[in-house]
Amino acid sequence: MGESQAGKTAEARQEVVTVLYLAGLGDGAVRLPDGQIVHVAGALPGETVRIEETRKGSWQLQAVLEAAPERVSPPCPLAETCGGCALQHMRTDALLDWKVQRATRALLSAGFDAVPQATTFQVAPHSRRRADLAVKRGATSMLIGLHERGTKTIVDMSTCLVLDPEILALLPTLRTVLHSLQAIRREASLHINLLETGPDILLVTDAPLSAADRIRLAQMAEDYAIPRISWASTSNPEATETATQRAPVAQSIAGHTVTPPPGGFLQASATSEQAIQNAVMAALPTKMARRASVVELYAGCGTLTFPMAQRCQVSAYEGYASAWNALKAASGTARITAHHRDLNRQPVMAKELAQASAVVLDPPHAGARSQMEQIVRGLPTQVVYVSCNPAALSKDTALLAKAGYRLHAVTVIDQFLWSAETETVCDFRRESSRRSHSGPSRSG
């Protein structure tokens, strides 16, 4: 084959197109000449861009020919490779507007005729207090960071504009210490929660901890004032054990001291947690009758339970045993009843939900279909839904729309800065023939 023919064969297909909109992962959606819609990372709506096909059906941005006014230079030097931030090339105010649009479209698609103007909140850089990082053994040190988008390649996290600086400052030490551990043969994962008592670390490895490993971790905990380091095997990551503990582990929530489980879920930042709490509490009546009760579903360690218990009785349900134990241990009050229950397999039934002054739920990313079916059978007067996934929000709340609920208020919280993740708090209410002074106020 001649050189010119070989070059022609290897030449990649390119197109000049206009970006139509941002898709769910933050990629620009474009229409090819054949009518096919494809997604291109790094492109913004309204831009004219040149794109190149890297493999069949997969396209990448080659050049921005006409930039959108929302475009900025990514502030992080790792933005082009690290998979953690998909939208650093977009102004943060425009990013928040897009997230409001995502939530609004989801709710309109669910069947609500009108969506109220959203209350909004956006976190500041360097505020994220939890990190879930990949670890891979190198020749002289450990790679610790996030995967390059769409690959298994780990981008070593030398800097980060999202994480709290205290977490970032730990990474050089962790690279050195983890490299010395026999428990990591090839790969591991690292989960860090920055609690009020300091960093809480869970290490999940592909081999068991040796006695020498435990001594090394204990010394690191002492040197860097780390209260607890826990461990689990990649073959059974749920079975955690304490590798070393030098001090109590604690986090306060609305006046209650909680001991989160190793790797336990926390909202991304303290300020976004407060914003979610504020939105939920604003949805509930300011004054509730002495015996008023709220059923809370997917309660976790009590992020919403404890603030709500200052105003009413709370019957809180959580399926993850470690989180439920933490919630129960911290409750210490007759105003909270903590139940351990897998809500996907055994949802709280309509009869109990019908008696509640309100139902508050913060389900996982996939949503709460089984539980929503019981809610629309019980028809409580008010449902407050906290969502981290607009697609699941739309599917779940379509049941509320069909059951006659009206959308009273929406709050959109950008707690995952420069990502496509969208947090929404929605207040749904319905007129009911059952009048109760303990229930929430009705909307017209």
Structure description:
With 444 residues, the chain is α/β, with parallel strands linked by helices. The protein contains 10 helices and 22 strands. It has helices spanning 3-10, 92-110, 165-179, 211-223, 270-283, 305-309, 321-331, 350-354, 369-378, 390-402; strands at 14-22, 28-31, 37-40, 48-55, 58-66, 119-122, 130-137, 142-147, 154-156, 187-195, 198-205, 228-233, 236-245, 251-253, 256-258, 293-297, 313-318, 336-340, 358-361, 382-387, 406-414, 423-429. The strands form 4 sheets. It has an 8-stranded mixed β-sheet, with helices on both faces. The longest helix has 19 residues, at 92-110. The chain is flat and about 70 Å long. Mean pLDDT is 93; it is low at 1-9 and 433-444.
- So how many helices? 10
Number of strands: 22
Strand order of the biggest β-sheet: 6-21-22-20-19-16-17-18
CATH homologous superfamily title of the largest domain: Vaccinia Virus protein VP39
* Through-space gap between termini: 76 Å
Task: Give the C-level CATH assignment of the largest domain.
Answer: Alpha Beta
| Helicity, as a percent range | 25-40%
According to CATH, what is the topology of the largest domain? Rossmann fold
- Tell me, what's the shape? flat
How confident is the prediction overall: mean pLDDT? 93
User: What is the radius of gyration computed over CA atoms, rounded to a whole number of angstroms?
Assistant: 24 Å
The CATH architecture term of the largest domain is: 3-Layer(aba) Sandwich
Low-pLDDT sequence parts: 1-9, 433-444
- Count structural domains: 3
Instruction: Please state roughly what percent of the residues sit in beta strands, choosing from under 5%, 5-15%, 15-25%, 25-35%, 35-45% or over 45%.
Output: 25-35%
Active site: 388 (nucleophile)
Keywords: 4Fe-4S, Iron, Iron-sulfur, Metal-binding, Methyltransferase, S-adenosyl-L-methionine, Transferase
Protein name: RNA methyltransferase
GO molecular function: 4 iron, 4 sulfur cluster binding; rRNA (uridine-C5-)-methyltransferase activity
